[in-house]
Amino acid sequence: MSKALNDFRLKLGGKEYVPIVVGGMGVDISTAELALETARLGGIGHISDAMVPTVTDRRFETKFVQEKQKKYKFNIGNQDKSVVQFDLNRLAEAQRLHVGRTMDAKEGDGAVFVNCMEKLTMNNPRDTLQVRLAAAMDAGIEGITLSAGLHLGSMELMKDHPRFHDVLLGIIVSSGRALRPFLKRAAKFNRMPDYIVVEGPLAGGHLGFGLDDWQEYDLKNIVQDVLELLKTNNLDIPVIPAGGVFTGTDAVEFLESGSSAVQVATRFTVTQECGLPDKTKQHYFDASEEDIIVNTISPTGYPMRMLKQSPGIDAGIRPNCEAFGYILDSKGHCQYVEAYNRELEKNPEKISVLDKTCLCTHFRKFNIWTCGHYTYRLKDTTHKYKNGKYQILRAEEVFQDYQFSKDHTVKLPEQSQSV
To answer: Which residues contact residue 23 at a Cβ distance below 8 angstroms, ignoring those fewer than 6 apart?
Structure first.
């Protein structure tokens, strides 16, 4: 008899969870509401701390972004952005507010984790990362998923915090090769990760693969590579595959071959609890396979999967580092700022930047439509109205479909008559 995902449990930190982890999509796509609903249902939901001052302003009507922009307004026309720094105390305040309010609202037997990206360099990579990690622990987050980078220095940044051995820690990797150096660093601090998310080449957003070779990799092979690495080193750490797990049966296949849970995201982008505007969710439903592309317009240097209709592609807007500046490196450089100034010098009357985009501004406005490879299948998970629009789902419907479905089927939601 075939099994359903609900026949398994993820054992983590002395507790058991429905083995469904909803990924931390930024900026505020994985909202607190989505994470809390996942936790209520017994799984693990992520919030993302990407651009946390912006997210906190949106959630609680604070003025973190406005204050920073006002402070550095004098520098807007300057190509050198090295002076534009985050106030670390205000950054910590924003993180504690975002995480703390979420944790205060939590119900159910599941958990809420935060996704923390190393590549949000913020013109001060070490200190800003340390503040985000510490403030999340201060605010009672149950788990921290280290993402977008190797995080070889992150244990050092956290080791003196009183919750260092209490909070659950995980890392996202795209290969066993990327995991090895992190495990060596972790061993030095006697603090191995509590879980490992293995993200394959079909995931949404930034990818840990090359633009020209991502198609050569397969998630199942990468997961087996990581499982073998852990076995060889006598490490019993839960492995959680991510990227392209579209049905409950997909998930079961991983769990039957040694994984402990799955991380999913694409199918939750079109739920009511997701932070994307409803109009954008309809674009996700409408997408064809040909609409989903991998390009290098991200100033982080990583390839990124998105819909080719994304308004943020070739927008050519002025950089707004004084307000944001999350991608500035330790010297105040950003590839988009450099590309913009290059095109500004060529033709100041009509600026078109084809090779890079301003991630900060466009992610804030939901104009970069990052998506998983199987986004084109979303239309098969719901009902289409006579006017051409699709019924937006509830997170509970998607979660329970993963939890109980069999034979690669997707249960459609009860049809709503409203549009």
So the answer is: 30, 46, 115, 242, 263, 264, 265
